[in-house]
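User: I've been going back and forth on whether these two constructs are worth ordering. Before I decide, could you fold them both?

Assistant: Sure. I'll take them in the order you sent them. The first construct and its structure tokens:
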Amino acid sequence: MDLPSNPPVSPAVRITVLLRLVSEGFQDAFAARPAWLEVPAVDLAELREIVGVERVEQLRSATGLREGATYTAGGPAGTVTLSAAAHEGVLGLLGLAALPPDVVVEETPDGARYHVPEDWFVTAPAGRNGSADRAG
């Protein structure tokens, strides 16, 4: 995904939104919080540079954040990985591109809530590919 060298949204915000999206996708799929979250090495390094080593260590402790190949949430029940559609769609959620037409926006007293399509998530129940067993 090509982003401008001086984006209007901090890379830390984009990374945080992707982590929240995969975490909520896991919770929706398995009715439980993920035991761990994976983020690509380049994004983890960028996050560490922006927010500092101490804050990343706090996130590691609180969420099981670790380096991985892509944005994935996992636990005993299985894994959820963000699809390419999610990576493109999140640009719309951040106001950097048009909002995808299959995203439903619900106005609530607390602000807008976004309902994203199921194809943003690749869900693998435990035992199907062994990836849920990647203990941290």
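The second construct, handled the same way:
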Amino acid sequence: MRGGDISNETSPKIVVVIDVVGTVVTEEVNKGFLRKEQIQRVKTIDLKNVSQLWNLGNKYGLSIELAAFASDGWTQETLEEVMEKLERRVSNPFNYAEVYADIEELISVLPYRANLKGVVDVQERVARYGSYGVELNNL
């Protein structure tokens, strides 16, 4: 909205990988007789990082997407549980949650997302995103 006009402009977006938000652990779940499945859970939430993301989103009007990878054991259901946990315990800065097959799938769609300003990830992986990669402390 500019000068009271309603525009069709989309807000700038950043993608935040789940490892930035908290400590992730792998749990084994019994899925019937002799069948176990490994799923990912957020053990602890990094309140400082979540607060910083909320402040950035509020200050600059950013739309923030929470991302995880199916190759690491994430499902859309477990990622939505994280969103609900954030909503209950602290302010949830995320507008969307998406599970990508792997990091390569996320990297392959980056050039086609015109309103994407960056991907926030941990220091070990941030270089894989090229010019889109940014650490939270550098925002």
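Notes on the second construct follow. The helical segments are 18-21, 47-60, 76-89, 103-109. The beta strands are 13-17, 22-30, 36-45, 63-69, 96-100, 116-120, 133-134.
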